């Protein structure tokens, strides 16, 4: 099935993983609303690259932590597109707005994390489905390990928020199944041009070295295009019986066993 002529909104798509998703959908002929918060120049660059691929779209500024701005964002989509076939909830605040360990995290930082994820996804799906025909596609971008483990202490706010998003996706999948709208989560692993790659260079390099040494069976970190490819697959008509799932797009990192040294696991 072709996606030609479909319409998508991708929050947080001015750069990184969101941009990778936008460009892969554009390659399939999907018109894209590029959601951004602060970096208008990067959002316009994403839109220019969308157009280079033969699709069209617009840029929309919004702070997805604020309900009134979520409504305004979808009103712009309706005015420009008239409908919406694909909604990708990808936006996430920058670490300084929430990066604090459990005993120190402020209520403001906690709210920044939860509202940018769980609140934005809850309200975003409500708005999206009012514009979406039966058979639409909803996808949230998560980082599942942060909601399952507790080792990355300053990530507690975002980890809890991502866990909430994955739970919400399952509830939405049931609620929207009668309309043929699927709701899934894509969970990237360590990915280039992401929040991890914006850590200090020695930290990011050590992450890359670790994954290239064998922690990721594929021997590398991911790319935004890898995540975009997974989203495209879930948007196809042939994926219409896949819903309520969290798909790990991480080169196999999530199937490794942290209990045993890599030397033992490799045999």
Nutshell version of this structure?
By secondary structure, this protein is an alpha/beta fold. The protein has helices at residues 16-27, 40-52, 67-81, 107-131, 144-148, 156-176, 201-215, 224-235, 262-266; strands at 7-10, 31-36, 57-61, 86-89, 137-141, 182-188, 246-249. It is built from 9 helices and 7 strands; from the N terminus they run E-H-E-H-E-H-E-H-E-H-H-E-H-H-E-H.
Characteristic terms for this protein:
single chain, 267 residues, alpha/beta, Rossmann fold, 7-stranded parallel sheet, 7 strands, 46% helix, 13% strand
Description:
By secondary structure, the chain is an alpha/beta fold. It has one domain (7-251): NAD(P)-binding Rossmann-like Domain (Rossmann fold, 3-Layer(aba) Sandwich), CATH 3.40.50.720. It contains nine helices and seven strands, in the order E-H-E-H-E-H-E-H-E-H-H-E-H-H-E-H. It has helices at 16-27, 40-52, 67-81, 107-131, 144-148, 156-176, 201-215, 224-235, 262-266, and strands at residues 7-10, 31-36, 57-61, 86-89, 137-141, 182-188, 246-249. A seven-stranded parallel beta sheet has the order 3-2-1-4-5-6-7, sandwiched between helices. Strand 4 (86-89), helix 4 and strand 5 (137-141) form a beta-alpha-beta unit. Helix 3 (67-81) packs parallel to helix 4. The model has no long low-confidence stretch (mean pLDDT 94).
